[in-house]
Amino acid sequence: TLFRSCYKGDKLDGTFGPINPTLNTTYEFMTKFFKEISIVFPDAYIHLGGDEVDFTCWKSNPDVKRFMEEHSFGSDYSKLESFYIQKILDIVSSVHKGYMI
């Protein structure tokens, strides 16, 4: 799914957190999304936000923890956020838009 499932202990708690930065399908979706945005909105810049991410759900999710280990991020979830933001910046640049965070 596009949004990351949250856990309470070792069980899904039925809630979702921030966008799932661990799946290639997330970036495939975001590429299509920003291509459409660039057509519909002729503005030169896109405001991306991203400065208010709550890491609680990511911290609870075993798949995110595994991804963090595989990418040597340790327990620094701001590194995961930076990983995600850089991929988004690359996508936005590929559709010839400027960005603000």
Mind explaining what this structure looks like?
The chain has 101 residues and is an alpha+beta fold. It is 49% helix and 21% strand. It is built from 4 helices and 4 strands, in the order ββαβαααβ. The strands form 2 sheets. A two-stranded antiparallel ribbon has the order 1-2. Strands 3-4 form a two-stranded parallel ribbon. A hairpin with a 2-residue loop joins strand 1 and strand 2. The longest helix has 18 residues, at 77-94. The radius of gyration is 15 Å and the shape is elongated. The two termini are 24 Å apart.
Give a quick rundown of the structure.
With 101 residues, the protein is an alpha+beta fold. Helices cover 49% and strands 21% of the residues.
Q: Care to count the β-strands?
A: 4
Give the terminus-to-terminus CA distance.
24 Å
What structural class do helix, strand and pairing data support? Answer: alpha+beta
- Sheet-strand content, in percent, reads 15-25%
Radius of gyration, in angstroms, nearest whole number:
15 Å
For the residues shown, what is the average pLDDT?
Answer: 93
Largest sheet: 2 strands, antiparallel
Give me the strand/helix succession.
EEHEHHHE
Can you list the strand order of the major beta sheet?
A: 1-2
C-alpha geometry: elongated
Helix content: 40-55%
Low-confidence stretches: none
Annotation field: number of helices:
4
Considering the chains and any ligands shown, give keywords for the structure.
single chain, 101 residues, two-stranded antiparallel ribbon, two-stranded parallel ribbon
